[in-house]
Amino acid sequence: MDTLVNSISQHWDMALVFIVLILAGTAFIKEWMPPDMVAMFSLGIILLPGIFGLPILSTEDLTGAFSNPAPLTIACMFIMSAGLEKSGCIRSLGAGFKKLAGHTELRTLITIMVVGAVLSAFVNNTPVVVVFLPIVLSLAKSSELKSSRLLMPLSFACILGGTCTLTGSSTNLIIDGIAQKQNQEPFSMFELTKLGIIYAAVGFVYMLTIGKKLLPKHDSMAVDLSGAEERDFLTQVIVNSGSPMIGKTITETLSKAIKEARVIEVRRRGVPIQTPLDELTIEERDRILISIHTDDFKELKETEGLRLTAYQNLKLETLEKRPAVLLEGIIGPQSSIIGRTLKELKFRQRFGVLILGIHRQSGEFRRNFEDVKIHSGDTLLIEGPPQAIARVKNEKDFVSLSEASDTGIRKGKALVAALITLAFVIAASASGQPIFVVALLASIAMLATRCIDPSDAYNSVSWNIIFLIIGMLGIGKAMEVTGGAQFIADGVISIFGETPKPIIILAVVYLLSSVLTELISNNAVAVLLTPIVVGISETLGIDARPLIVAMMFGCSASFATPIGYQTNTYVYGAGGYKFSDFVRVGVPLNLILWLVATLMIPIFWPFS
Question: How far is residue 505's CA from residue 491's CA, in Å, rounded to a whole number?
Fold first, then answer.
């Protein structure tokens, strides 16, 4: 007993770090708060004992962790990507894509995947998917193809393209930066390309054969609102005083007037009514929660005696003069409005638009409409004047499902932005300068040539990702200095015997990276696993590079869930997919690429 107490007293710091990691992992999976806040709060807990004279991390340890160039490099890559987007360069490629795609599914799939992969090898893949989403939807509608057959391959191709270069994925930059701090040689720009191309080729063949057969065949759910295809939105109406519906049942009134409307719940004075709907008599100021198709909104708005919750504070004459411009858009995985209720968003005050309805792929709502919290991948139905709708389209939080206008495009800068990106690629691969220095110069060049203005540059950086990385770098350093990383490394090795075969460890590292990435942030996984992987290699006496490469590809290979990678989240809502669609199509691809990585990595990067 005394030995146990002494052990705990000697290693309390490691125990605290592990407890924090378990809590952080749970918070990531349960989505108790945004990932960046989880990381920063976790780091705060680790730093807290230092206030009482029991520091886990010294000042030198902490500043050493924050000296990692990865966060600033990633910020520069965001700015470069935004420069290509704001200059119209990516959009010009999108216009050319529509000409190349043709009207057959196979040709369209090949074009989508090739263009997406090539672009994503050099710029952040998120803006590529954001720009191509409405283009693919428009193409699907005009050619009578189903977008559910196109959008998942687009996302997968962009992920595969990101594995082809060091800058193609933020996780590659993070792992490379931490590995250098562990005395590992830096990766060159195209060192990963030899395996990345094989990866992309295998992924392409799979998606054009087996994956193509597994893709859902339902009609597109993300279409222009003027189209014939439909999407169910949750909305809420209030029964006005003097309404002809008062004193009658739901089935006699609303269900009869709008046959496709599905009444979910009726609230009276804030309390849900449990009476069966065919027996419930409507009263003044009842709030009726409804699931309704987009093309039935006009009929609902014109129903006598009802008013949409969004209109409750508007006067009748204001409604009559209000332009009826509708827009559908998806909430991205890094949006600042995730976790906030519709009431808290105050879209009317911020943009002059109203939120009429909300659509969520994964489930049903059983709460007051205004108290619904926004989730990543939700689709909002918004109404407002054309100018206000244009402002919402340009918001970083909101990905429009209709083709973007030329608003905000800096005309005449597309070629300049393309040349700057080309110069970056050449300099990063041939100059011998660190990637961070070259990326910083390229970002400055984008600003100097006015391909992007300073405000757009600041807004283009996903600061929540940067703070997530910063927080996790501190936690990763705590694992290292407390001996936690080596403790896990020794534990992994002991599971497979005293001298396990390196290829088995490589397979385990890849699989662990891939599985964890499907559950929590790939950037967080990269930070946590890198010191462990380096520790494993040192214990086994083998070169760490093969294991590091396995981790890079494992953290990027996220195909089995719509939440593992942000491009998957975007297409999840836009394509009307079910969670099971990603499992059915993505799990076989994950397993195939796991086998490819296990066999090919030791060939390109030997263990000794």
Answer: 12
Q: Which residues of 3-33 are buried (b: 16+ CB within 10 A; e: fewer)?
A: eeeeeeeebebbebbbebbeebbebbeeeee
Q: How far apart are the first and last CA of the chain?
A: 44
pTM exceeds 0.90: no
Residue 215: CB partners within 8 Å, gap ≥ 6?
Answer: 148, 149, 152, 153, 581, 585
SS3 (DSSP) at 105: helix
Could you tell me where the beta strands, DSSP code E, fall in 270-313? 271-272, 287-293, 306-308
What residue has token string 């600003």?
447
Structure confidence by residue, pLDDT tens digits, 485-505:
778 777 777 777 667 788 998
Q: Does the pLDDT value for residue 397 go beyond 70?
A: no
DSSP E strand boundaries for 332-397:
354-359, 379-384
- How long is the chain? 608
Which is nearest to 161 in space by CA: 208, 207, 193, 127?
A: 193
Query: CA separation (Å) from 121 to 124, 167, 197, 262, 552?
Result: 8, 7, 10, 45, 14
Euclidean distance between CA atoms 429 and 432, whole angstroms:
7
Phi and psi at residue 181, in whole multiples of 5°?
-65, -20
CB 514 within 8 A of CB 551: no
DSSP 373: B
Residue 89, both tokens: 């360069």
Rg (CA), the chain: 26
C-alpha to C-alpha distance for 21 and 590, rounded to whole angstroms: 26
What is the DSSP secondary-structure string of 471-528?
HHHHHHHHHHHTTHHHHHHHHHHHHT-SS--HHHHHHHHHHHHHHHHHHS-HHHHHHH
Please give the pLDDT value at position 312: 65
Running DSSP on this structure, what letter comes out for residue 547? H
Residue with tokens 């836009």: 574
Q: What is the pLDDT of residues 518-532, one digit of tens each?
A: 877 778 888 888 888
CB 175 within 8 A of CB 555: yes
Q: For residue 555, give the nearest of 600, 601, 518 by alpha carbon.
A: 518
